[in-house]
Amino acid sequence: MQNTDEVKQVIETLKRNGDFDSFRKEIFDSFMNGELMKNILSECDDLVCETIQTAPLDLDAAQMRKRVKDKLDREQFTNRIADDIGRLLHQPASTSAMEARIEELSRDVLGMPKKEESTNMEVIDMGVQLIFIR
Questions:
Q1: What is the pLDDT of residue 22?
Q2: Where are the alpha helices (DSSP H) in 34-114?
Q3: What is the C-alpha to C-alpha distance for residues 48 and 66, in angstroms, rounded to an integer?
Q4: Coil, strand or helix: which one is 106?
Q5: Which of 12, 14, 60, 78 could form a Cys-Cys staple with 19, CB 3.0–4.6 A?
Q6: Which region, left, alpha or beta, applies to residue 18 given φ > 0 means left and ψ of -120 to 50 means alpha?
Q7: How far is the C-alpha of 16 from the C-alpha of 113, rounded, in Å?
């Protein structure tokens, strides 16, 4: 799709139909309910427990929060979470539904037949070409 108006039309249709929000929610739910999140929470829990257990007894709540936050920062915990989410977003299972929806809308905007129809037409075209070759 080279025409920017057509690209804009596809994007606006995706927004209007809630496809982007649906995709975002699906990815978020997959992350929150998946093994990756369980591992992150377990690792975070271990880190916090270790930090609390090794802290001096005279720290108040604000000092303890700072100590835990500093430990998480040193371990680059939030960066690792962002990297994990990035990897999740790039998995084919995460993007295939959105890619299929974008292709469907692109074909519609360009006036092309749906993919199933296109495949069937290609088979018919191949059959017609074979007849002419013989």
A1: 85
A2: 35-53, 61-74, 77-89, 92-110
A3: 11
A4: helix
A5: 14
A6: left
A7: 22
